[in-house]
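Budget justification note: compute hours in this period were largely spent on complex prediction jobs such as the one shown. Inputs:
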Amino acid sequence: MASVDVRQVRKVYKRDAEEIVVLNGIDLQVPDGEFVALMGPSGSGKTTLLNLVAGIDRATSGSITVGQTNVTSLSEGELARWRSRNVGFIFQFYNLIPVLSAVENVELPLLLTSLSRSQRRERALTALKVVGLADRAKHYPRQLSGGQEQRVAIARAIVTDPSVIVADEPTGDLDAKSAEDILNLLDLLNREFKKTIVMVTHDPRAAGRAHVERHLEKGQLASSIVRREVTA
Amino acid sequence: MKFLPYVLKHLRRSWVRTLSTIVGMALCIFLICVLQTVLDAIRKTTEAADPSRVVTRHAVSLTFNMPLAYKPRIQGLAGVKRVAVSNWFGGVYRDMKDFFPNFAVESEDYFPMYPEYVVPPADYAAYLADMQGALVGRDVATKYGFKVGDSFQMESFIPPYRVSGPLKFNVRGIYDAPPGRKSSVNVGMMFFHYKYLYESVRGRRGVGSYAGAGTFSIQVSDPARANAVMKAIDTNFENSDVQTKTETEGAFLAGFIALTGNLVGLLNGVGLAVGFTILLVTANTMSMAVRERRTEIAVLKTLGFPSALVMGLILGEAFAIATASGVIGVVMARLAVGNLANLPFMGLLLGNFPALEVSPTVGLLTLSLAVVLGTGAGFVPALGAYRSRITEALRSI
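Corresponding output:
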């Protein structure tokens, strides 16, 4: 069964009387444990599709099912609760909270759980260990490099153990070496921790690490390249 | 509680702005607290007035004296139990900053009317026996180190009373408030014999000149009939050159305070303006804090923070700022208010109130005002955070 099932999704923005169709009848199925790269020119609707899958935006029509949940039918409150448990989001510009240390940033999503303070801290440190930054737990974002910040952001995305990770150009703001480290990390999460990953990227090298590349053009899925099947 | 460190860390992010907001708000709260304390003192003073006592003064103004011959005529009216002349002397001890209210009274008639001024009987007898004797309140004695037997001089700032230069006084007694009435009895005043003032003034400004009566303090036999007695007194002098105005002690005190203008209205008006300033200052700070954190708010929502919780965190920051400001403002007011009467010219007004201090009620009310206004001012920015859409906020990087 598909981990992410997008059916006939349309997204239309209204600007005054004008309607802008960003996504037009998208069908996308991402099986459990698959690593998908969404590519396409600017304005093709990649990020919009990603936002819909992550439940931070709403489709104009169509349905999106992630795991067992039809996210298009959830209320705002239910959607927030669902996101906190099921989706890890990685941003292009990391978006760490500057006044919080690395471990506090990672701990942030756990504040919404019933875990005790020590349990939260332990899990946050474990997540930092996974991304190789346990020794930087007390550092603030301004004391970290771009690559390190993105690794902290990845730790924040996985700390609640979500089934799906969505990444919006996670290497877009990084140098080649740091980008490679981040892609290795995503690869690890997919391979070892069986996370389903949907990644938007402009970078062909980044897309090359995915199992499947899907190309969008003018709001529609144009083509796909299957590199390798998901292994159980 | 688990979100508290998060709220506090955000306040530390721009600590200069947070600190200046807290200081600004604390000053506003300080001002409101002081103003409310003065209003509270005015209210307590008028409420503590004895219903059996009425005061007769010149109908035109308190600054004009009445003939002493009015006393027996008032005394002769039905329902009048006791009458005593009482004159505001306006004597200054050392310097204006050392001012405390002082009155020349007909002691033999005056003090039986005021049992709340408690003096040891032997001291009171010594006072009555000494023409230059003075009774000083406990606060005055403590502040200036007066002891029974001490002598000091005072000169009035009222021209007719200055004709014979400074008057010498001997401290013959120190009066206190009865237990349990310390907040309503003013022990910051001084009394001396009216006859001493009378003698020091008589004939000094020309033949026949004399001190006159500033007010007549009158005790009525039956407080229920006070209105009828007051009316009878004023009617009695209706067709004379010097007409009178008689009112209850409470109304007289309120009128005395009103000599400085509509003080209550003024203080309330200033308080209102200051309260509005608090609203603007906090609203501005919180708006800036929210505006510069649009992306972070979107990130929190992306992580699954419900909109209501995000709104709560913003309100929590406003609440923390407001509470800190309120506490600092009230503490500052508590420390400062006791010394207000020592400021130049403030003693003239505030010296008429019993122990001026920030009462728990005023402190709590002011603190509540700070919390409500401060948190309320954070409501609009917090609502903006509540309503913000994740995708739009993320795009605004």
